[in-house]
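Run log, item B.
One chain of 110 residues. Sequence copied directly from the ordering sheet:
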Amino acid sequence: MSTVYETMYILRPDLTDEQVDQAVAKYQTLIQDQGAENIEIQNRGKRRLAYEIKKQRDGIYIQMNYTGPGNIIAPLERAMRLSEEVIRYLTIKQEVSGAEAAEEKVAVTA
């Protein structure tokens, strides 16, 4: 069964646009290979952090929304943890409202 997830991660502010695109493509490919679908990526741009993280005051925020099995999260977060370009990440499971869940069941059974 697929679940809806949102992963928000912050990249170092000194990365070029090309390096940011490469990082986004790397993580998108990683979750696609693990079976994720309906991937939506939003580059939220460079923003000031609330507090210093890894000696950085700014960061480039990237948001990924996707559906997939729960076992895709561990490899994604492991890759982010080992990466030099990611300074912070967070994955949350989205709650599906009752109407959307009913629509999913109808779509699955049809």
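Observations after the first pass:
- The chain has one domain: 3-109.
- Residues 17-33 form the longest helix (17 residues).
Flagged for discussion on Thursday.
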